Amino acid sequence: MAHEQARFGLGVVGAGMAAKPHALALNALKDRVDVRGVWRRNRDELNQFCTEYGFPAAESYQALLADPAVDAILVLTPPNAREEIVAAAAQAGKHVLMEKPVERSTAAAERIVAACEGAGVTLGIIFQHRFRAASKALAGKVASGELGALQAVHLVVPWWRPQAGYYDKPGRGSFAQDGGGVLITQAIHSLDLMLSLTGPVKAVTALAATTGLHRMETEDFVAGGMDFANGAVGGLMATTANFPGGAESLTLNFAKASATLTGGNLTLNWFDGRSETIGEASNSGGGADPMAFPFDWHMAQIAEFADAVTAGRQPVSTGKTALAVHRLIDALIRSGKEGRRVEV
């Protein structure tokens, strides 16, 4: 008789806005993942969340870390509350899967990555756009080399976030809580996906600004040019000031074909006249409701992380891969401030 695989034990920290797709994903994965407990500081909101999704409420974060059946901690707090949580998990020998960004600043993100490396625990970062069927299909074609050499890149993130109900919430769009604006909070998903397909950016020239549509400390509009390490060139535009919001799109122009990812779809146009479409039509959270997207991408990433930890390998999205997107964002913002080309 085959030995039944033990479920992967997970403790969850944080249960705010970002937690909904994770909760739905964890319930869909309950045969594979055992949610041992959820903890957040606000007890009433914790109990409400646990009742809604059928999870046990943890007595404290320390109780989660003391549970020998917890293999990993899923961290869903805002980025300003991460460093102590991750350090304690690493010290307790628990692996960590964490919402993006790693932290507000690259220096703090580097400390988190170093803490996990030093403790020998795996650190995964949630970048669910990599786990869309269309993204995975394109990654396979890029890896095979069948598209030829990459020549040019075009990324557009034309999103909308309202002042009322979004930026009016305390801390939203501030350096103290979020660490930045549209790049680190919204476009970071598309930038990470881009880097996973293109390889590193060498240098950028950018404009970063806050439009009159928002009252906020950080930027809501960034446009820039990119020089890639492999010789390709690219341009990007990312905003939360494009009412009513549209799907992000990434076009990669190769020697033999152009590939466009729009939301959850991949369109390939070959120079020889062929064209093909892969994927599924879906919302991406580009409009006023930031959570208006399916949870199956989160489900795929949580499952892949659990499989990686169980097998003793690194997951697809790690703290180290996330540092690359943090450094690109830093360069774009610095270029916008200083009005010059900046090396990444």
Q: Can you describe what's shown?
A:
The chain is an alpha/beta fold. The chain folds into two domains: about 120 residues, Rossmann fold, CATH 3.40.50; about 190 residues, Dihydrodipicolinate Reductase, domain 2 (2-Layer Sandwich), CATH 3.30.360. The chain is built from ten helices and 14 strands. It has a nine-stranded mixed beta sheet with strand order 13-12-11-10-6-9-8-7-14. The protein has a five-stranded parallel beta sheet with strand order 2-1-3-4-5, with helices on both faces. A hairpin with a 4-residue loop joins strand 8 and strand 9. Helix 5 runs antiparallel to helix 10 and helix 8 packs across helix 10. The radius of gyration is 20 Å and the shape is globular. It holds the Pfam family GFO_IDH_MocA_C3. This is Gfo/Idh/MocA family oxidoreductase. GO terms for molecular function: nucleotide binding.
Compact description:
Residues 9-125 form the Gfo/Idh/MocA-like oxidoreductase N-terminal domain. The protein is α/β, with parallel strands linked by helices and 344 residues long.
CATH names the topology of the largest domain as Dihydrodipicolinate Reductase, domain 2
Please give the count of helices.
Answer: 10
Order of strands in the sheet with most strands? 13-12-11-10-6-9-8-7-14
Q: What is the β-strand count?
A: 14
CATH superfamily of the largest domain: Dihydrodipicolinate Reductase, domain 2
* Apparent shape: globular
Number of domains: 2
Secondary-structure-based class equals alpha/beta
Organism: Devosia ureilytica
Domain Gfo/Idh/MocA-like oxidoreductase N-terminal: 9-125
InterPro entries: Gfo/Idh/MocA-like_OxRdtase_N, Gfo/Idh/MocA_Oxidoreductase, GFO_IDH_MocA-like_dom, NAD(P)-bd_dom_sf
GO molecular function: nucleotide binding
